[in-house]
């Protein structure tokens, strides 16, 4: 299987925060940011495998700083690690105060995507090759995140066995 450099999967998105994008605290809706994150991560995934890719899990979204109406929000995504048919995507969210120019990391997120072939079945993906220090650090720490993800998924499956599928009005 071929290899690809992380840089070949890198994507960027910049948006202004409008009044319709904020909650009652005048900060960006978390759901709006999560939508941006999934959107840009899906592009990085497809750039790696040059095929359809689906979100298998949103492993984490850590909101670190509020994003206000005077801010722009910039997202950067790239593939950090690959398995046989899956890939881990990292999304870095930077808020920039458009009045002062101050920038801060507002959120970070890890997602897992699975590549799908034309038959809609999982297909093999290229191995990823990190180059920068940031990319190498994320690559080196991916095994630990994969173990946590595997454990969390197993626990979720067990927990699902206890959940009801009936509606309260039935």
TrEMBL record:
**Enzyme Commission code:** 3.1.2.20
Q: Decide whether keyword Hydrolase is in the record.
A: yes
A GO molecular function annotation here is: fatty acyl-CoA hydrolase activity
Primary enzyme class: hydrolase
Q: Which Pfam families match?
A: 4HBT
Q: Domain of life of the organism in this record? A: Bacteria
What residues does the HotDog ACOT-type domain cover? 7-119
**Cytoplasm among keywords:** no
- Enumerate the UniProt keywords alphabetically: Hydrolase
Family assignment from sequence similarity: Belongs to the acyl coenzyme A hydrolase family.
> What is the protein name for this chain?
Acyl-CoA thioesterase
Biological source species: Paenibacillus xanthanilyticus
Lineage of the organism: Bacteria, Bacillati, Bacillota, Bacilli, Bacillales
